[in-house]
């Protein structure tokens, strides 16, 4: 089953003074029909002015993944060092048993970001922060796993991870990224009891018989494979979560 969510149907919430576009109920924007998708609690889009800051907290029991669409930002989670993120990079705030604050401050050109909130599968885990300033681009335009809670996706143990390995989630979930040239496609396999949420960051793609433009999303359930075909050069993010 596929359910399309068009960009112009998103909600708008006020969070820490910032207008956030929401795929699911968040902050002061509530919609009983759009509370979450499986263990995917929220998908939020925001834009920060140069030097602008967005702060959340206190939070617990969620992995907050912030993918930077454009610009640069400094990410900071209570109890951890400040980290630089640039366009295409990813910041994980694993709130675990609780963190007081987590915030992002935009660089001199501002920043736009997309956040995925994933409900943790285990309570009381130790809070964690991980950062990937950016990920190497795949030459074939296929899906790259950029965050995962599955052991088989873990990189070999090393003091420094410099190969773009996925950040480690406390949720049994994945976040994937693909930059797909026009006329080409990216495919992903999963189990039929998983929920998939595909967000088109830019470009134009087809999923099954549906055409999606930049800003649109598709919720997919009961599938074992999804293929995304780009009618125009496209960037997509795909969340794979427990139903």
Automatic annotation (TrEMBL):
For this protein, the record's Gene3D superfamilies field holds:
Jelly Rolls
Q: Which Pfam families match?
A: Pirin_C_2
Can you tell which superkingdom this protein's organism belongs to? Bacteria
Q: Which residues form the Quercetin 2,3-dioxygenase C-terminal cupin domain?
A: 166-241
Q: What is this protein called?
A: Quercetin 2,3-dioxygenase C-terminal cupin domain-containing protein
Q: Which organism is it from?
A: Gluconacetobacter diazotrophicus
């Amino acid at each position: 089953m596929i359910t399309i969510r068009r960009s112009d149907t998103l909600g708008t919430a006020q969070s820490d003074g910032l207008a956030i576009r929401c795929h699911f109920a968040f902050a002061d924007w509530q919609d009983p029909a759009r509370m979450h998708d499986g263990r995917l609690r929220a998908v939020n889009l925001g834009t920060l002015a140069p030097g602008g800051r967005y702060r959340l907290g206190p939070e617990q029991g969620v992995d907050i993944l912030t993918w930077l669409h454009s610009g640069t930002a400094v990410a900071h989670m209570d109890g951890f060092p400040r980290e630089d993120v640039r366009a295409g990079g990813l910041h994980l705030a694993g709130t675990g048993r609780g963190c007081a604050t987590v915030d992002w401050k935009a660089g001199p050109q501002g920043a736009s970001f997309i956040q995925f909130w994933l409900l943790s599968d285990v309570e009381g885990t130790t809070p964690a922060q991980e950062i990937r300033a950016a990920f190497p681009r795949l030459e074939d335009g296929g899906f790259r796993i950029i965050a995962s809670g599955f052991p088989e996706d873990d990189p070999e143990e090393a003091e420094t991870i410099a190969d773009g390995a996925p950040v480690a989630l406390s949720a049994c979930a994945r976040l994937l990224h693909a930059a797909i040239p026009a006329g080409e496609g990216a495919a992903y396999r999963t189990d039929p009891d998983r929920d998939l949420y595909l967000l088109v960051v830019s470009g134009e793609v087809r999923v099954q018989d549906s055409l999606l433009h930049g800003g649109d999303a598709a919720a997919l359930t009961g599938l074992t494979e999804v293929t995304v075909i780009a009618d125009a050069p496209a960037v997509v993010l795909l969340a794979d979560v427990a139903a």
